[in-house]
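From the methods appendix. Each design record in this collection lists the tokenized structure first, followed by the designed amino acid sequence. Records were kept in a plain field format so they could be parsed without special tools. The example shown here is representative of the layout used throughout.

RECORD:
FOLD TOKENS (472 positions):
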């Protein structure tokens, strides 16, 4: 899932200066009795005061917190966004167990205020949800959630006294989000992941660490927290720590998780430059893939967890691998010049791959069918030119054994030009052959490509969600 953030967090004091460990965490989860889930996307609440949370001890039982959290989670990977009911009442409030550390503080309720339309906005973060139907943005005084097609703001939450949110991670379309403070005046310490219940317009739990959080990924059964050189996997039901993974330096917070209910696959940087690590939790299997000679700059994982696409810091080549055996399935070329890759995205049918970079062009590549039956030797062959939208290849590919590999490269089928130097992330839209592009300047593009002829994409829509008056 694509995310991009652009902020510099202020130095934050170590909440436990006497501790010896840099990565131990503590967790606190609370719930109020008698509440039910009235809406997956609750209307904006303008109440400035929230009732205090009640703290209870772990002796109240793990089953209570598990049952309570399960009512918020979607029943399938693609929940019905119009279904907002919960059949069982919430149990008595409980506190999840503390993991190997004494960092523990009560979750405070932010002071909510009436949205001020004249308040200046600095965009700190933007990311799609798991099915790319919505996107979230963190700003200097709160966060906002938008629908992609049709484009519309679903809701916004504005905080008083600063309120910067540097990370917003959605869980499909339900009202549970993960928030991390960011910007010059963060709403929460950047070393904490806050579990936000938008039905209550406040935080209901937290995960605390001794270093800044670089990223968060959610499944309906797991919370994955990314630190600079470690990834921690928690059970969503009771916030118990399940797994810790040591990684190569990971300042971008690179990590992806599959969303299939039958298998849980996690991809993260390995322990050396250019390496990715694939965890198949259902198979109890770990696979290391040396994907590039340079450090990993970006990767994406298919929803079912079977294939990954990776890019290095050079940004010229994109490689697609089988996650089970590490086989190189295909290699495509973005360009000849170095570039910083901001995002990669598979289409839902794994037919297309989209790439955005600092060069200002979004590329769409055609992926070969039957990857599993193609080995490394076939990965660089041209696609069948009788099939729709074959991937473009150099006209000099017939002498690829003589000239450098560049001349036999597979090139993008379709392109869309943007402002060079800006940060954009990309995903495929729910309408056929459409691409959605989000920019850190607040831009929203919806484009369409021709799967037969390719070439320049057609712009269908442009909006600016930071400055609506600039929308077309």
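DESIGN:
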């Amino acid at each position: 899932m694509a995310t991009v953030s652009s902020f510099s967090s202020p130095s934050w004091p170590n909440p436990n200066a006497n501790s010896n460990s840099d990565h131990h965490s503590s967790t606190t989860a609370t719930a109020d009795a008698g509440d039910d889930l009235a809406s997956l996307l609750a209307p904006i609440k303008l109440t400035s005061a929230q009732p205090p949370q009640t703290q209870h001890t772990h002796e109240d039982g793990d089953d209570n917190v598990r049952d309570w959290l399960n009512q918020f989670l979607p029943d399938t990977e693609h929940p019905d966004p119009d279904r907002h009911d919960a059949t069982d009442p919430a149990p008595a409030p409980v506190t999840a167990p503390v993991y190997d550390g004494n960092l523990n503080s009560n979750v405070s309720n932010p002071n909510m205020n009436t949205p001020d339309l004249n308040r200046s906005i600095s965009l700190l973060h933007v990311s799609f949800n798991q099915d790319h139907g919505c996107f979230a943005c963190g700003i200097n005084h709160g966060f906002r959630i938008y629908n992609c097609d049709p484009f519309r703001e679903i809701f916004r939450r504005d905080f008083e006294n600063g309120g910067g949110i540097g990370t917003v991670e959605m869980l499909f379309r339900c009202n549970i989000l993960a928030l991390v403070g960011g910007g010059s005046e963060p709403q929460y310490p950047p070393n904490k992941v806050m579990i936000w219940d938008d039905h209550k317009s406040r935080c209901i739990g937290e995960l605390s660490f001794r270093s800044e959080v670089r990223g968060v990924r959610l499944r309906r059964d797991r919370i994955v927290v990314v630190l600079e050189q470690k990834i921690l996997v928690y059970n969503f039901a009771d916030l118990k720590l399940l797994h810790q993974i040591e990684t190569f330096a990971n300042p971008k917070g690179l990590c992806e998780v599959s969303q299939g209910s039958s298998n849980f696959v996690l991809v993260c940087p390995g322990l050396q430059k250019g390496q990715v690590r694939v965890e198949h939790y259902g198979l109890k299997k770990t696979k290391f893939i040396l994907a590039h000679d340079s450090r990993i700059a970006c990767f994406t994982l298919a929803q079912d967890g079977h294939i990954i696409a990776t890019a290095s810091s050079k940004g010229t080549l994109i490689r697609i691998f089988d996650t089970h055996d590490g086989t190189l399935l295909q290699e495509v070329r973005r360009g000849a010049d170095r570039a910083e890759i901001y995002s990669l995205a598979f289409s839902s049918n794994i037919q297309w791959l989209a790439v955005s970079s600092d060069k200002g062009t979004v590329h769409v590549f055609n992926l070969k069918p039957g990857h599993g039956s193609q080995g490394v030797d076939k990965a660089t062959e041209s696609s069948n030119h009788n099939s729709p939208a074959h991937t473009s290849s150099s006209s000099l590919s017939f002498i690829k054994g003589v000239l450098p590999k560049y001349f036999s490269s597979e090139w993008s089928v379709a392109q869309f030009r943007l402002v060079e130097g800006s940060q954009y992330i990309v995903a495929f839209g729910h309408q056929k052959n459409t691409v959605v592009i989000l920019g850190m300047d607040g831009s929203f593009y919806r484009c369409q490509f021709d799967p037969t002829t390719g070439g320049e994409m057609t712009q269908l829509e442009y909006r600016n969600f930071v400055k609506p008056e600039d929308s077309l």
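APPENDIX NOTE: The first helix runs from residue 62 to 70.
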